[in-house]
Fold this sequence. Notes:
Layout: H1 18-24, H2 28-58, E1 64-66, E2 73-75, E3 80-86, E4 92-96, E5 106-109, H3 113-121, H4 124-129, H5 138-150, H6 154-157
Antiparallel strand pairs: 1-2, 3-4, 3-5
The structure holds zinc ion.
Amino acid sequence: MPPPPISPRPTPTRRIPRYVIGSARPIPTAVSVRGGVGGRLDVSQHEISVSRHRSTTDNPPGPVRTCVGCRKRELAAELLRVAAVVDGNGKCAATVDTTGNLPGRGAWLHPDQQCLHAAIRRRAFVRALRITGSPDLSAVIEHVENLSASSPHPARENR
Ligand SMILES: [Zn+2]
């Protein structure tokens, strides 16, 4: 059995229509919103300047190492990693860690003969690799010489 239809009632006259209430003060809400927007403008400008600063200087796209030759900081991807290996005779030799898998300490070097020779001159490999005596650097020297001969910008080729 369906319920009896509710007869629509006319709006009671004692209810005050909304536009009567709003007409007293229709503006204040809009004014406060505008004030808030004005206040946010300064904040957003500040955030833009901060993020721009961070993207250029504070956020390099990778780990950074120091070249043992020129002592400049550089992205690790742009540097050669030199590691010490011990041959069968117990003699230390330095080699270029082309795969990045050699264990132990590493020395970072620009693929540049000037940096290589500066590092050799100041015995930077001995200190960086914590090895005693004079390591055999011929493999590293040969590697850098090959890079220099094949391309003037070997580091950029890898990108
Ligand atoms: Zn260097």
